[in-house]
DNA sequence: ATGCTGACAGGAG
DNA sequence: ACTCCTGCCAGCA
């Protein structure tokens, strides 16, 4: 597990990209989860907006970000959910014909509250 | 600074 | 599990 540059002095977008890049292949996270990790439990919408504006040179695996129900992005890149599914399959994530992912299997957590 | 938009999330039927 | 309305936040004109 790497340590992303999730710093408050950085811009919101940079924090989002940094966190998303910390997501390992074969795993996915929800917009709300990312937002919560950044300190904004209700900024899920902002996270989605940021990812939508994510430049190609950002090298960000936005494919590993789905909604709370594991739903893929309907307007992902130019191919929409179609392309999103391809990217997920490439990472080893199985996507249902409904364009949904089983979060209980692929959802990833950066830090588990296992302090004991 | 104000108003509108969007790859969200939660509650109710 | 899906649909409709509401609340939150960041980005852009």
Shape: globular
Q: Report the order of strands and helices.
A: HEHHEHH
Number of helices: 5
Please state the structural category.
mainly alpha
Overall pLDDT confidence = 88
If strands are numbered along the chain, what order do they take across the biggest sheet? 1-2
Biggest pleated-sheet summary: 2 strands, parallel
Provide a concise account of the structure shown:
The chain has 116 residues and is mostly helical.
Would you mind describing this structure in some detail?
The protein has 5 helices and 2 strands, in the order H-E-H-H-E-H-H. With about 120 residues, it is mainly alpha-helical. The protein has a two-stranded parallel sheet with strand order 1-2. The two termini are about 20 Å apart. The chain binds a DNA duplex (13 and 13 nucleotides) through helix 2, helix 3 and strand 2.
Which features characterize this protein?
116 residues; mainly alpha; two-stranded parallel ribbon; 2 strands; 36% helix; 3% strand; DNA-binding
Itemize the secondary structure elements and their pairings.
Blueprint: H1 12-21, E1 29-30, H2 31-38, H3 44-52, E2 65-66, H4 81-91, H5 103-106
Parallel strand pairs: 1-2
Helix pairs in contact: 1-2, 2-3
The protein binds a DNA duplex (13 and 13 nucleotides) through residues 12-13, 30-32, 35, 40-54, 62, 65-69, 71-77, 80-81, 84, 98.
């Amino acid at each position: 597990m790497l340590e992303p540059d999730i710093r408050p002095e950085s811009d919101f977008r940079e924090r989002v990209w940094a966190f998303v890049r910390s997501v390992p292949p074969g795993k996915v996270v929800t917009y709300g989860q990312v937002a919560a990790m950044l300190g904004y439990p209700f900024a899920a919408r902002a996270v989605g907006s940021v990812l939508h504006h994510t430049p190609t040179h950002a090298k960000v695996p936005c494919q590993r970000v789905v909604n709370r129900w594991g739903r893929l992005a309907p307007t992902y890149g130019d191919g929409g959910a179609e392309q999103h599914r391809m990217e997920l399959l490439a990472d080893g994530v199985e996507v249902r014909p409904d364009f949904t992912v089983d979060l209980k299997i692929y959802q990833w957590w950066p830090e588990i509250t296992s302090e004991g």
